Amino acid sequence: MSLTKVSYSMINGSPASILDFGAVGDGVTDDSAAIQAAVNASDTIYFPTPSVQYYVASAIIVPDNKTLFGDYVYDGNVANTTILANAGITVFNVQGNSVKISGIGIAFNSATGNFSNTSSIGILVRNVNSYGAVSATWQYVSFVDIIDCTVLRAYKSIQLEAAYWCSINNTHTKWDFHSVVVNLDQYTQFTAFPLPSTTIVLDRVYSHGTASTYSIPVGGYASYLGGVQDLSVSNNAVDYFDTAIYVNRSTSTNIKNQYVENVNACFVLISPFGSCVIDSPFTFQLNPATPAISCSFESFTLIGGKFDFSSATGSLYVLTNGASANIYGPVTVVNGTAGFNSVADDLIIDSSGSNGLTIASGTSSDGSIHFADGKTGLDAYRGQIFYSHTSNTFTFSTNAVARLLLGPTGDLFPNADNTQSLGGASNRWSVVYAGTGAINTSDEREKQDFAAITEAERQAAQGIKSLIKSFKFKDAVVKKGDGARIHFGVSAQQVAEVFKTVGLDPNNYALFCYDEWDANEEQGIVAGNRYGIRYDELLAFVISAL
């Protein structure tokens, strides 16, 4: 005797095939009852690849200790999924503990390319006794794993309520409003603390939401995660959602290697307690009017990552809402072009309270901020602010050259001796306040060509002495009127004429100054010139003739 047909249920210890319980898989016949019968009868249930699709018109209830698996491999095609579901239902309602669902694709009927019914849920993890206010009758669901699954055209692709120790791995969702939501309905029940001993893991979840046009997301949350104690989100990809990841009232959140594209907000992180770490995100084409990161955790840390705005105007806008924020490099921002200030909006850290940015280095290391116009050589650090923890000294550089040093005791001095000016002919300081006078070099070892005053110079000095008069500055009169103060001095132009009358060139004498400058539109400077006098030298010159 030979067997002409062998079913899974005929082989001891093998999974139960839903075909053995009457499932047809023609895409028309309602297979809900057959699938439910298989789930009720066996602990391990196999979904063979159907001839068309298994049509499901009502929810499949999954109790404790069940494994549901199939052979579906994601290809993004609605017609190739394992299950075709009637719009407006929940396909799998996991109400028990220790459940695994893998290799199953779900697509909802829809007259449009996107979700069509706000009641469509692909996989719901929730016990029937976990509704309303938290009470002693609540029954939490735990140890649920969703692996290698796909949900298309759902309003909520995967929803976990009052669940913990759950994971979602290597799973795709597409054309939905919410991809993965945790405690979206019940988060208000966890106003004091999140669920006890809660761990939710999302790894390699690929969420492609809904777009009304190519660049405008209309979906809700790629991941809404509320009331979770320990939350791990890693290696995921998101596009076309209003918000990529929304975390509400979770104590410890770690988000790593997250790719985000075409969303209004990348990360919204809300909690009065706990910490959140975002490690190495890559974001692209975001809404410039919305903070890329908004956080109110007690502590927030951003480690590296890239924020690319090359295809949209935007900036790395971090709204801390009073959180303690730490940023560890390298963080790359490409083409940030909108924000608080159009020339300083690539990285924005905003808070309603006190705010700050810390660059932490070792006691024998250095911290620096570079201003680059290229990636190699001197172009990589044309401008630099550099702090040495060894010498406790700030160094400020321009055009790739160190210019100014601020020492550990507050002394300010040029990096190179006698090479730089303080102010300029068109950029003058108004007043210099000092406890003592300026010290000018008078070391004989640095001087040459000593000579006695000539007769012509004596005549010029005596002529200049007669030029010393009282006067008022015109700009002071404009500001103060009759209250403008009286000064004593000379006119540089008249001093020049005195030199010329005795046959001397005033430009050969350091007491006489004349400067010209070009226009600088960036600094608002108009081209011009100005005469000046070095009074210490002029007075020495006049005294020499007495």
Largest sheet descriptor: 8 strands, parallel, barrel
Work out the number of β strands: 37
**Helix-strand category:** mainly beta
**Count of helical regions:** 5
Mean pLDDT: 84
Helix content: under 10%
Strand content: 35-45%
Measured between the Cα atoms of the first and last residue, the distance is 140 Å
Q: Radius of gyration over alpha carbons? A: 38 Å
**Strand arrangement, major sheet:** 16-18-20-22-25-23-21-19
The stretches of 5 or more residues where confidence is low (pLDDT under 50) are 1-6, 187-194, 213-217, 337-342
List the keywords:
546 residues; disordered N terminus; 5-stranded antiparallel sheet; mainly beta; 9% helix; 37 strands; 5 helices; 8-stranded parallel β-barrel
What do you see in this structure?
- By secondary structure, the chain is mostly beta strands.
- Helix content is 9%, strand content 38%.
- Strands 16-18-20-22-25-23-21-19 form an eight-stranded parallel beta barrel. The protein has a five-stranded antiparallel beta sheet with strand order 29-30-31-32-33, with no helix packed on it. It has a two-stranded antiparallel sheet with strand order 34-35.
- A hairpin with a 5-residue loop joins β32 and β33.
- The longest helix is centred in the C-terminal third of the chain and has 11 residues.
- The protein is rod-shaped.
